[in-house]
Each structure stands twice: as C-alpha cells, then as structure tokens.
C-alpha cells in the first residue's frame, strides 16, 4: 500500500459535531475550543454554519466566533452556507472561506427540491460570484456519494456530473461526505481513484462518519488512492442523520494517533488533541465514541506497564 | 487496492470473547450459540480452551462443549492449549484442532519464563507430537507481533524467528494476534507482505482487537496484502488485557457487513450473524462495541427510509 508522507485534517467538531448535541455550548466555550484546536496544530477548522438559526440553533453564534477570532495567519476557518444570505453573513463577520453542500441522491433532490443535484449546484452560481467578489474562498461538498438512504447505490457518473456542475460554477475544491456511514473501503478506493484521475484540477476532501465502524478503514483506502485531506471531529462527536444514537464523525484523536503510528504527518500534537477531546466531553456532558479517550495511546501503554507489572510482581 | 474474492472467518467469541466476561454463561447457552454460529455459515470456530479452570473459569466447560457437539462435517472447532495437559483433554473429549500461543515480546518472555519466545515454541514439540499421534491438527499463535506493552517495537526479525521455531516443531498454521490493539495498517501490510513472501508454506491467520479503533482498517490492509483468514468475535466481545474497559475483538457482524458491501464473500449470512450477536448481548447482559448492532445494516436504511420520509411528509 502507498501512504502519503503527510495529510491535512479539518477539525469539523465545532460544526458537524456540536450540531448533533442537545446541550447548548456557550460561545465562550466554543472560542476556547477553537483556540485549543488551533494550538494543537490544526490548520483547517470548520467553525460553524451560516444557515437558519431556527433549523440549526447550535451554530447560530458562528458570526460571533469569526468576530472574536479575527484572521489567524496560516489558519483556514470555514463555515457552511446554503444560499446568498450565508455569503452575506460571511462578508459581515470577516469569514474568508465558505462551503456549499448538495446531496448526491437524485431521488432525494427531486422529491424535496424538484431539482437534480447538478441543477442545485448550478443554482449556487450567485453564491460563488458574491463570495469571490468579496474575497471569500468557496468550496463544495457532495454528501452521500457512496450510498444514500434513498437509493440502493449512487452511480459514479452521477457523482461526476455533480463535480462537473461545481467546476462549471467555479468551485474546484470538493468534499465527498459519507454522512450516512454507508461507504466501504473498496468503493472509496475505486471512486477516489477515478475522481482524482478524471478531475486532477480538483482539491479533494473526504468526510467519513463511523456509523458502521468503517471510517478509519475508509481513510486508509482513500490515503492509498492518494487523498490527503480529511475531515475529523474532536472526541468523535457527530451522528448519522438517519440513525439516532449512532456513532458520529471519525474522531480526530483516533486518526492523529493512527497517523503518528504510521509515520504519516498530520502536524497535530496528539496530547493537545486528546486534551481538546476530553474538554469536549466535559462540555457536552457525556462520553463519546473515541477509542483513544477510552484506551489511551499505544505509547502510554508501553510507558506505564513496567510499573504495573512490578506492582503485581509478575514482571520485571 | 486488491481485495480477495473470499475470506474465511473464525468466530472466537466463545473463547476470547466470553473469557473477558464476568457473568458466567451456562454450557447450554454456549451450545446454543455455537450451533447458531455454525448455522450462520461460519466454518471455523474457537470453542474454548483447555487451560487451568482456575486461571480461566469461563472456559472450564470446553470439554463438555466438544462432547455435546460431536464432530460436524466441514466445520473446524479449535481450542487453545498451553501444554500437554491441554492435548490430553482434547484427546479425551474428541477435539480435533488445538492452538498454541506465545508472546512475541522477548522482554516479557525472559522476565516471566526465563525463555526467549522461540525457546518457548521449541518446548511445544511434545504437544505437537502428542496431538499428531492422536489425529489432532495443531496451529500456533504469536501474540503482539505488532507491538507489545513491554517494548517500543517488535523487530520483524523476532517474529520471523518465532515463525521458524513453529515450523521447526511441525506447526505451519500461524496466527498473528494483536491482543493489545497496537497494530497500525501500514505495519500490518508490511509485516504480512514480508511474512507471506518469506514463508509461503504457512497458512496465516490475523487476529485484531479494536482497542484503538484500527481493527477494521488493519483487516483491510491485511486483505490487500493477500491475507484471507481472520478471527472475529460475535458482538465485538473481548477486551484488551492491558486496558480495562477497552473495546474488544473486532465484531463478526461488522466485518461480515463490510465484506458484503465490498463483494468479498465470507460465506456468512449477515442476518443470522446479527441475530447471534443480539443473543450474546442478552446473555452477557450489556451492550457491546458492535457498530452494526447499533446502526443496523446499510441496506436496512435504504429499505426503511421511504416510509419514514412519507410519515414526515418531507420525501416521496
């Protein structure tokens, strides 16, 4: 297998993670988390979204986060938007990177919006123009390209059509988002290999949820296919929109820990990353689906064991 | 990536899984589980161990399981042994397959047994002889070849030396067992690729614990390296001997579900496999680290959703 020397992680916990939590988190706590995430070495962070506060109350204070943080050299802070109102909020609060989203499901799109996914993306042209006019970078996400609850499978030609629609409106940074946790590693490898080859001009991101325990394996498959940009969420916060109580996004600390063991650089300090995840658990008030928070680092085991063995009198 | 057309799973829940449980499971319940596992399509099953009932009371009734099940055509039922007493018990109850184990850690072996791992394996010669004299097949396991709590890393040359010690006493079926959950996918790929190439006469098994969330990714890496035999445990039962409360063996149903999605045949019926895992949770009296028990199959989502959508009035 071929693994990259380094990868870039985007911490999406403040948006995709907290969005799934019932306990409201104070803006001051979010700010503390954002600063700690950046101090851990993360250079791309999804701060929130500029969407209806009624629909997603958890990210209603995204504007305040941007205003408080200001611009931080070398750090990209992105937010999700759905329309022109989102770009307008981005302009006003000093946000310099926004992200659009469309579902890969034709059945879902046609039933809910009476549009194909590529028609939805074509409709984003005004957002792209307004963002660019205001010096705001813009990227696009395709959710559920590996399978959706609305059809047995998504043909890769559909995913290509949507990618081309993004390129047509001037978006060349695209995320493939497995929000329903249905992707399997062989499929991830096949699709990312084909998409990378067909659209070499695109900067690809992969976004996996660990709903069915395959997120880390999917990241491994994507890395082998040459993908080097991944979304992760502190403490594994998040969820599956279709399975209440399911595991969330793949945990940042689990991915950083694995990459450390593989010699794949993430630029993130694992101990600071773990400290952030612990603080997140305190704030949300419950344990999460983080393996490293539960088991500790492999290296901790090595350091701690001689003492424990000595106490038991069973080892050296 | 290259994935095999089919793989073979050994269900180790009755041994490695239940061994970690405090609640005693009745022999009759174990028999019911064993029969259900076999009915699901599993053709290799680890029934228990012939070791000291004081050390491992959970598998003290292994002999009774063999006596009750008798021989089942096409199904291999193996048990762990540690010495000649184990072979003797296997002979008496009709067990036809036993498995030895040694730790790959030189530091651990020298401190506890005053022997190197290969000296321990050489000492198994009498077990191998007695097993073969009695028509009992025998295999060997190397635990923690990917890292151990007693040293920062295990040189692959050490693992090779142990494999050669097994071959020298006539054991050519060898399991690499990551009981401490420290293996990372790149390492699994490297080591299995090298071991397969150097010892083509060996029938290799891989055994992963999901302690740090990497078990499924490690299976993917091993498959890509051409490994086709894996241990899994119903409901993800098991644990890490060094981390109390950590996640256990990789869950059988999670692996079968993923393989179904990848077109890799396991010969196992996923619905029967899930039913076994649910029954296991009832018997042990607690939820486990199984993703599929929690989230359901991807296919269930597809089948169920149109109804839910219709109820919400948000979909077709």
Give the percentage of residues in beta strands of chain A: 5-15%
Individual helix count of chain A: 14
- Structural class estimated from helices and strands of chain A: alpha/beta
CATH-level-4 superfamily name of chain A: Aldolase class I
Largest sheet of chain A: 8 strands, parallel, barrel
Average pLDDT, all residues of chain A: 94
Q: Tally the beta strands of chain A.
A: 8
Spatial arrangement of strands, main beta sheet of chain A: 1-2-3-4-5-6-7-8
Evaluate the radius of gyration of chain A: 20 Å
CATH class of chain A: Alpha Beta
**Which stretches of chain A of 5+ consecutive residues score pLDDT under 50?**
307-316
Helix content of chain A: 40-55%
CATH fold-level assignment of chain A: TIM Barrel
Please provide the ordered H/E string of secondary-structure elements of chain A: EHHEHEHEHHHEHEHEHEHHHH
What oligomeric state best describes the polypeptide chains here? Answer: homodimer
Level-2 CATH architecture of chain A: Alpha-Beta Barrel
Shape label of chain A: globular
Number of domains of chain A: 1
- Roughly how many Å apart are the termini of chain A? 38 Å
Q: Please report the two chains with the greatest interface, counting residues with C-beta closer than 8 angstroms to the partner's C-beta.
A: A-B, 61 and 61 residues
Summarize the structure.
By secondary structure, chain A is α/β, with parallel strands linked by helices. The first copy, chain A, has one domain: TIM Barrel, CATH 3.20.20.70.
